Amino acid sequence: MARRTPRRRDRLRSDARRGGRARPRPGRRAARHRTAGGLHRRRRPLTRSALSPVHARKDPTMSPIARKLGLAAASFVAAAALLTGCAGPADEATAGQDGYGSLDIQLSFVKNTQNAGEYMADSRGYYSEEGFAPVTLVAGPTAIEAAIATGSADIGFSSVLGSATAITAEEMPIAIIGAIYAKNAFTVMSMAGANAIETPADLEGKRIGVTAGTAQLMVEALAEANGVDPGTITFVPAEGNTALLTGGDVDGYFGLETNEFIVLTQAGHDVVSLPLATNGLPLAGTSFAVSRDAIANQREELKAFLRAEIRGWMDAIADPEAGARLALDVYGADLGLTEAKELAQAEAQIPHILTDQARKTGLFLLSPLQIEENIAALTLAGFDIDADDLFDMSLLEEIYAEEPDLAVAP
Fold first, then answer.
1. Which of 4, 104, 146, 336 is least crowded, fewest Cβ atoms below 10 Å from its Cβ?
2. Where in the chain are all domains bearing CATH 3.40.190.10?
């Protein structure tokens, strides 16, 4: 995917320029309209260690899965870095007086109902009320973590597995600041019958259809977490073609309970689902990943973004049909989306977002126990990473402490 030419944008005087501390916030509106700019800062090239696959190749302690993930991430970063270099550095701009400036959000997938909360936040003016304009929702899939690390996106919709790979294998200076899907919706689907994949043990010797990216790596992690040799699994490129499953060309298909599973069941197929979240990989799903520099120096901008997201997703949960309509009629109008599927997805994704924990503490905020479970799952999959190196929930903790009404479930 070609890198878009950076637009001229306002620049915020960072907390670092104010001596490393955030000034007291006199109120949301006052904070919004102080001298401000965009989340983008001058593009600083990554270090060699962040651009080279050398760590993935030479680390003898890294598991085969983690090493393979690292090499995949390395190729993504190299491509993103090359595109960044071709486009040239971002322009400097004079600080503005009425907002944070533009905001580029790199989505993980096409503009379907999966991003209903973002459509609500955008169409209802929540981003602009928080000081961002214009806001660009960039469709995926793409090398999300590399986009964040190289500065071509302000916010990336990553995953725990994707971010952990970028951090451990490529030393990318990023972190997850919240999870939209506190419970991931990934699953291995199969047709009901004698060859159904009902347990992780059934993965052995099976042919699994996967799309490009980390799908194969996640199935391998699921297998390894459950004592199944990933080498016994045959992976077949599927590229979104679920007909491979229904036609018998593969035994299983890796996808989402909130997407492909709905499509297949609505078509009348009897499908068995093997969710990763309840079979040894309780990883968070779609998550907000940002640079460590932004967390340290642009906290108010990130909090403004998160507040808009909270409001947008509270609306999408309260009125799922409205979010689906925005996908169908506005944001994904040119994709040929199916009304029945989008409406069903809008409902099906709610339990993955509004979990029991989210009802207690607020959307996106992972509890210490949830973080511990994520790290344990990563360890089973061959990763060696500390929670503090992957997660930073401090921004959401500050938001809910300052504005407890935002933690009230819709």
1. 336
2. 15-183+284-407, 186-275
Closest to 234 in 3D by CA, of 200, 196, 197, 207? 207
Nearest by Cα to 148 from 137, 156, 140: 156
The partner residues of 38 in beta bridges, in order of sequence, read: 11
Nearest one of 254, 243, 246 to 279, comparing CA atoms: 254
Cα(384)–Cα(387) distance, integer angstroms: 10
Q: How many CB atoms lie within 10 A of CB 29?
A: 10
| Dist CA 22 CA 79 (whole Å) | 35
Q: Which class is 186-275 in CATH?
A: alpha beta
CATH superfamily of 15-183+284-407: Periplasmic binding protein-like II (3.40.190.10)
Residue 221 to residue 281: CA distance in whole angstroms = 8
Question: Which letter does DSSP use for residue 200 in this model?
Answer: G
The number of beta carbons lying within 10 Å of the beta carbon of residue 202 is: 18
pLDDT in tens, 335-383: 999 999 999 999 999 999 999 999 999 999 999 999 999 999 998 878 9
- pLDDT band for position 218 (cuts 50, 70, 90): confident
**264-273 long-range Cβ contacts below 8 angstroms, 24+ apart:** 264/189, 266/340, 266/341, 266/344, 269/191, 270/191, 270/192, 271/189, 271/190, 271/191, 271/192, 272/189, 272/190, 272/191, 272/192, 272/196, 272/197, 272/198, 273/187, 273/188, 273/189
pLDDT higher than threshold 90 for residue 182: yes
